[in-house]
Amino acid sequence: xxxxxxxITCLVIILDTSQSCHTPDDFVAxxxxxxxxxxxxxxxxxxxxxxxxxPRRPQIQKCVGFEISAFLQALAMIHSIEVINNSTLLSGxxxxxxxxxxxxxxxxxxxxxxxxxxxxxxSRETVTFQCDYSSYLPRVKAVIGAGYSEISMAVxxxxxxxxxxxxxxxxxxxxxxxxxxxxxxLRTVPSDFYQTKAMAHLIQQSGWNWIGLxxxxxxxxxxxxxxFAIQAAANNVCIAFKEVLPAFLSDNTIExxxxxxxxxxxxxxxxxxxxxxxxxxxxxxSFHFDAHGDLNTGYDVVIWKELGGxxxxxxxxxxxxxxxxxxxxxxxxxxxxxxxxxILSKCSKExxxxxMKKATGSQHMCCYDCVxxxxxxxxxxxxxxxxxxxxxxxxxxxxRSTMCFEKEVEYLDWNDSLALLLIALSLLGIAFVxxxxxxxxxxxxxxxVKSSGGLVVCYVxxxxxxxxxxxxxxxxxxxxxxxxxxxxxxxxxxxTLCVSCILMKSLKILLAFSFDPKxxxxxxxxxxxxxxxxxxxxxxxxxxxxxxxxxxxxxxxxISLPRVIxxxxxxxxxxAFGTMLGYIAVLAFLCFVFAFKGRKLPENYNEAKFLTFGxxxxxxxxxIFIPVYATTFGxxxxxxxxxxxxxxxxxxxxxxxxxxxxVILYKQKTNTKSAFLQMVYNYSSHSANNLALSHVSLNPTxxxxxxxxxxxxxxxxxxxxxxxxxxxxxxxxxxxxxxxxKTLHQKRSSSx
Length: 752
Known about the structure:
Low-confidence stretches: 1-7, 249-265, 693-752
Largest sheet: 6 strands, mixed
Distance between the termini: 166 Å
Strand content: 15-25%
Strand order of the largest sheet: 1-5-2-6-7-8
Number of strands: 24
Oligomer: single chain
Helix content: 40-55%
Structural class: alpha/beta
Radius of gyration: 56 Å
Shape: rod-shaped
């Protein structure tokens, strides 16, 4: 043992400053003969001296700066080979070695590789060019090394020519895992991909995102820097600065354990394949090369501490690269990890849920401002790059929200106070209709009821009013397809029937009391009660039927509001809806015209005046409805139409039936045949006098003859069948009508 120490000490002294290379054998650092030779590449010296020649001469320079760690690695290789030779593993076969000092220079490593590739047992050390090296026997069968990735890349590209296995103990550059470019390269350390991944993972677990990087100016350092930059960006870690140092200042402190066990002697051409599939252990763990030629080892996570002026390195955890986790083995290590998290290394304060990051003027993505998520957006994690959009159809979110809320479905509900008020008004209207029906039924034979067209017409109109009031119920509650299709159709047809009856009554009143021969002839031709009502109502039925067939109203979810879904009836066709309302408006306008012309009829029984007022209420209500309906939005839109229906329905009901009910209930003396005949007599006399005076003023020279003829002719022309007209309008008997006609004739003659 003492002798071995002396030998090693001598080697250290000799190798401290390498000798100049005069012959190829001078270039060899350590060698031992054997049946199978294994090459070794170790950076035993730190660097190669620069040449003073200008230009530099093509020769290998002297190396300086002894590296004890690399020297120990070379001794580990020698020791492993000697252990194998002294065992029974390779009976009768001796392994030799030929180790070269790369001096941390690619040039020296390439020179050594040329010797590795030279022919075996050849006196001249030359590399023979061949197209196929399958049968070529090189000087060595495999190469251990090199340490630096930059050197390993250059060596591997030369060894690829003969597919000579190369096993590195320190080269970790990620690019070396590419088996297309480096098919014969293997290594016993993980790729930098996992090293940088572990570093980024550790930084993320510590809660840091603002760091600096220091690397070496070589292939290893540059590739590791690029890989780490990608890993850091994936973990939202920003690099505040990058410092690249010369390669010779790098600290070689990584200890690599190489305990390779050869199981059998194999054919030289199959050595690379066997190495790729070999498995060995260190007594606790099993190791093997993966498809990329990388060993399935992990990393030790160490922490550097200065204690009492001395720098100590303590193991904190192990990084399992296969599962991407840190394995912490002690409570002390857990405390150290917790201390790392207490160290603040961030450019900006983290954004809380409900906020998102907004870029500032800095070039780094880790420097940002935190802004609140806008409406209908949310963020549920810290430091989110952008807020997530809620599904506007079903969800919403307030400003700075951490989640989306489901939209409430709204419609004009039965429990709504406005809906209750409108329903109460509709029920009140139906009650009025029933009360009027009872009053008219009990006073069936009175002149007022008969002058209203009889009980049948009154019942038809009252039924229409009741249906109009009932149709408002289909506008309230959760919309259904049946309700959507029924409400407009029911209102349109029933209101049209009501207005058609009013139009027929207006024509009959105007016809009965018209003294203009031309107008009376026209009205007689036009007045056909049943066909008028059926035709007017039938047209509306056709309009509604086409509407339901071609573009029927349907239930629709209105999602345009930010926080609620309005469940409403979509009318299907605005044109059909407008046509239905427009047609009613045309009929109402005709009623208004005819009623207006008959507004000066007998005072006590003048329906025309009240019908004019009722139609006026209708027009005002629906003219206001159009802009209000077009601008109203939300669940109260149906209430707008309900209000208009109630106003127009109440207006016509009150103007048509309330005056008659008032006469029936409170002026019963005027609701008799005698009072009625007296009223007709007074009105007829007044109308005849006005007509006679009008003719006299037009022909003053022959007024006697004209007046005499006029009294007879106008009487015949104005009412050729006056007793029939009066009987129709006021519901009196034909005999009474004849008496009224005679009285009227006598009054006209005497007054003229």
